[in-house]
Each structure stands twice: as structure tokens, then as C-alpha cells.
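Consider the following input, taken from an annotated entry for (2Fe-2S) ferredoxin (Arsenicicoccus piscis).
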Amino acid sequence: MTDTVATPSLIKTLPGAAYTDPAYFTAEQAAIFETMWFCVVRSADIPDPGSYRTVQVGRESLIISRARDKSVKAFLNVCKHRGARLCTDEQGQVQRSFQCPYHAWTYGLDGKLIAAPNLTKMPDIDRVEFGLTSLPVREWLGYVWVCLADEPPSFEDSVQQDIVDRLGDLDSISHYDVADLALGKRIVYDVAANWKLIIENFMECYHCATIHPELTEVLPEFADGYAAQYFVGHGAEFGPDVKGFTVDGSEGLDKIPTVADDQDRRYYAITVRPQVFVNLVPDHVIIHRMFPLAADRTVVECDWLYLPSVVEAGKDVTASVELFHRVNSQDFDACERTQLGMSSRSYREGGVLVPSEHHIGAFHDWVTSMVGTPVRRRRPCRSPSVRRPRSTPSSWVPALPGPHSPTACRPTASARCWCSRPAGWTGPQTCSSTCRPRSPSRSAPGSTTGSTSRSPSRTWPAGGSTTPAARWSAGRRASTA
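Applying the prediction step yields:
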């Protein structure tokens, strides 16, 4: 949980290591990006059978393609023969199959193995079993969502619930008819910052008066520092002299006819975990999709969507695109500047959130419930005669046991040590009596001990005791009782 500090006005952020530690980022890939529904491409990006795009989700490269029956398929981009990567281009078109360039194993658009050198002499090969590894797929809002988990979470209780938590109901977003809009502009940003910094920035507007002069002219209430996401169902109202959501406040484009009267002249911002931003205004919709590639690198694809008639007629969308392009550039520049400070000793224990940012604390709580909390190593875990290798990654407390988390030291009978040992450790398997047991610096997920009261629009709990993180935490508490 997010720590409190001396004053009720301020609550602690995540420590700096959460934004810089490669080991922690790897844990995020395994525990978040590879377990949740992830928005990968716009459905219109793969219009025909055989068209495909490759994307990076967590530690995996995926092929998102359309089969002969026009259904969308998602596969791991790995040949089942010797593990070669099948497609290296970001997008492309194949006729009937995907062929490995190494040994020519060939797969149909449905993923089934259909050909290979001497395959007829190996009748015992199951062509489905040795086909491409397929993944669960959903199409919603005109986008393709995939999940790498063996047992995907409910799409309704995760992706769609984030929309409900923000807008109050699912009908509100249906008024924008997002799936039937057309792509008017796409800009790809390569941001030298951690993905969480980008989400935190999007969730608050404490910075808006400082770095967003154009946005605060269109949405005057943002100059007060409270973001629209702070309140359930609230949309920021356009200024009285503003005609449209454009860089100069001039008239916008054709209004989406199904937008409700109480949604007119308002801007709604929504965060869909773990990597999507939805921005709703009366005449267009802006969708951000983040692709975290490293602890300090995130690629963001931003789509501006309009009525098909607007795009087909070639109407000038420059003024509406320019407004949020400037906002994106200003935000990403701020995130990159912030990333530089995450490795400073000054930020080792983290920073603070002011009251208009307190709802970000719920996001931090959710991250730590999924992954764990990076902690500052206070004393090395070592035997009196054996030193730990200097290459050990920075210590952190895993929320989920598994191959992505450091191996925990085996405790002595009298003390439990939760320091981490590197993979391949050959030293003593029991901590010395002088090794300090770990005292959790944060409350357990779901605990309210020492917390500061908040009034965010959402709490983003870790979930019930059925979640892996909760089961592991419960087992740990029971074993130390």
C-alpha cells in the first residue's frame, strides 16, 4: 500500500526503483502485461485475410492477423520447430500461410501446421499440437485485445469495469460509437520514460496550468489542478468562448450524432489498465495504446478517430489533432524529465502526492498488489564467510512467486529473511543469524492501517482472497503468525 507521511496533505509515491530496476520491470511484464487483457491493434489495421501486425506484449512477440473466415487471430511469433521468429516486419500481408524462414515449417492462417520438409514421412506429428500457439482474443471499441494468461480474467470485470468505474455505466461510452469511427490520424511516440510515469501523468492535472496552455484555454477547470478522472461521471466543460476541441478553440468537425446532450461540450478521460487511455469529445475520440518495452522506454500509439464521412470527405482535422499532439508532446517531455530523477538518491524512497493527486495512490496500490514493492536494501544477506556477488539486482519484495521473481533466501528457524538471492546462487542456503529479517515497509494489500483518507473516483482494489497475490500474502501472514 502507499505509505503515509507526516502531513495528511501528502502521501508517498512508489520508490524510485519501481521506475528504473530492470528486474522489477521484468516482474511487471510477467505479473501485469502477460496476465491482463492488452489492447494491441485497431481492427481496421488488419482488414483482409492474411493481413497482420506484430506487437510486443510483455516479454512476448505476437502476430495479430485475420483468418480466411475474417475472424481475428493472435499467435505467439515463434516457430514450434526450433523457436525461430516467424515475422520480423511490423506489418504485412501473406497469401495463405506463415512460413518460417529457417526450416520452412508452414502454418495456415488458423495457426495449424500445414507443411514442412519431409512432413509426410512423419505421420505421427499432430498438426494442431505443433501449430502456432494461439491466444484468447476479444474485439471491442474497434480494437483487438489479447491475453497471454492461461486463464484470462473476465473481460467484463476488468477492461469494461474500468470504463464503468470512470463513467458510471457502460452505456455512456456506447454513445460515441467508437467501433464505427474511422482513423483520421495516427502518431507514434517513442518515450524515454517508464510506463507508470505516463499513466500517473495522464491521471492528474496538477501540472496542467504549468505545461498545457492550449489545453487549459479549452478546458479552463483544468487550470485548477483537478483532472476529470478524479470524479465519477464528470466531464470537463469547454470554456464559454470555445467552439470546439481544437488547438485554438475554433469550430470542430461533425458531431457524433449519438452523443448525448449532457455529454456535449465536455471532455472525458479514462484509464483502462494496464495500457490504454480513452479521450472522448463530441466530434472525435482519441485512443492511446502504450507498449512498455523497458524500464525506461515506452512506445505510445495515439489514434484520432472521426466519423467515416469526415475522413472520406478529406476534411481538415489538423486543428483537432494539433491540440492533443501538443498535449502529448508536453506530457511526454515531462515524463522523460521525471525519469531522469528516478535513479537519484534523492528519490530512493519516492516522492509525494498532493491532495489533487491522491487518486494516483490507488494506482500505486494496484501495481504493488500485482507485483510487489521495491525496497531499499539495508543490509546484505550473507554468510560470515561468503559474500553475495556484486551483480545482484536491487532488492524488492515480490507479490507473486514464480520464475520472474528473485529466489527468496531460506529463513532460519528463528528468523524469516526476505532478502533476494540471484539466480544460480551457490552459497549457503540458510541466512546467518546476523541477517536482518525483513519488516514490511507497507501494509498488506487491502489493509487500511495507517492510511490517509482519500476521495478518488476509484479505489482499484487488489481483489478478493482468490487472487494469486492475495493467496500468497495470506499464506505468508499465516506462516509468520
